[in-house]
Amino acid sequence: MIAETFNETRTFGVEFEAFGEGTEPGPRLPSALAREGIDARWHNYTHAVVDHWKVTTDADVDERYLSTGTFNGYEVNSPILHGHEGLRQVEKVVQTIEATGGFTNAICGLHVHHGIDRNRYSDHPAIFPLVNVFLLALDYADAFDRLVPVSRRNGQNNRCAKLDSYYSSGMDLRTRLIHSASTDDIINAIGDRYVTVNPYSIEKYGTVEFRQQGALMDTDLITHWIALTQRVMDWASAGRYEAIEPDTDSLSALFATIDLPECERDYWYSHCDMEQSEYDDCDYAPYDAVGAEELVECYECGAGIPDGDECMVHYDAYCPDCYRELFFTCERCDDETSRDEMEEENGYFLCPFCAECEREEERERVREEEELQQTLDLDDEDDED
C-alpha cells in the first residue's frame, strides 16, 4: 500500500509503452478509456503537454520488433497528475490497456516525471536538490537495479543506460556533479537523455524523468515505483546529500537514506530481485545490431537504419529518434514540418501555412457572424419602426 504521507501537491506524470493487437490499437484505446471515465484522445506523434490522457505513436514500440502476429505499439502519456487521485487514474488506465488486449515486453518502458520549480533551481547553491537526485541514482545504482526487470538492469537496455554511460571527462562523474552550479552543468555532465534518470527533461518540461522501470501490467508495482521516485524528489529537496558507504544490503541503505515509509519498504522487500519473466523475453534488436550491409545512414546523427525503416523528409533519411525530435506531420496537410515551426491552433498541430489558413478561416467565421448579427439588428430596428 502507498503511505498516507504520499505528497499530494508535487506534480507527476507517466509515459507507458505497450503493444496491442490489430492495425490501430492506439487510436481505439481512447474510447475504451472514456467508458472508464478517463478523458483520453489520440494524437499523431507530439511532445506537447496536454490536459488529457494522450495516446500516440512511438518508434520504440514499432511493430517491426515483433516477429509473429499482427501487433502495433503505442504510448500512453498522462496529463499533469497529483496525489492519490493521480495514482488511481494510472491504475485505471493500465487496467484498461490490459483489458483491451494490450501487452508489454522488454521493449516497453514506464517513464515517470516529477515536477520541479525550474526558477528555484536556476543557479548555485539552490541547485543542490537536483544534484542530490543524480548523486543518489549514481551511488545506489545497484539498489535500483534490484527493483526493475532483468532486461533493464546494469545498462542492458539502451533506452535507460547507466548514468555514466555517456560521460567522457577526466574528472569522475560524481565529482563533476558535486561541482555543478546550474542545470546545464548537470545536463552536460551526464550527456544524454536515454539514461536511468533523464536530466534533459528539467529544461524541456520542468521535470525529472525516471526511465528505468519496465512497463509491467502490475498496478501495484507501478504506483509503488511512482511513490518511491517521488520520495527521492522530496528527500532531495530537504537537505544536502552526504554520501555514506553503502552496506552489504544496498537496498536497505537506500530506503534508510530517503526515509521510505515502512509499508512501502515491505512491498519492495517482497517484490525486489525479479527473476527473468515473459516481459524480459522478446526478439528486440537495436539498430546497431543489424548487419552494416543492410543499413542506411541517418542524415542527422549518422546512425545506421535498416533499409526501409528510415523516415524520409524530402530526399534525406532520418532514424525514428531524430525524426521525432526534428519533425512532425502536419495534422491538416500531412506535410513533414520542422518542430521549431510547429504551431498549435484549435487543438491541431500544424505547419505555418496551415496554421495561418486556420487563423484566416477563424477570422472569416468571426466576420460572417458579425455580419449576420448586424443583419439581425437591422431587421429588429425595421420591426420596431
Question: Which keywords apply here?
Answer:
Creatine Kinase, Chain A, domain 2, two-stranded antiparallel ribbon
The helix-strand sequence is EHEEEEHEHHHHEHEHHHEEEEHEEEEH
CATH fold group of the largest domain: Creatine Kinase, Chain A, domain 2
The overall pLDDT, averaged over residues, is: 83
How many strands in all? 16
What radius of gyration results from the CA coordinates? 24 Å
Helix content, binned percent: 25-40%
Classify the beta-strand content into a percent band. 15-25%
CATH class of the largest domain: Alpha Beta
Distance between the termini: 75 Å
The dominant shape is globular
Note the main sheet: 8 strands, mixed
Instruction: Briefly note the structural class of the backbone.
Output: alpha+beta
Low-confidence stretches: 284-293
Query: Based on the structure given, which CATH architecture of the largest domain is correct?
Result: 2-Layer Sandwich
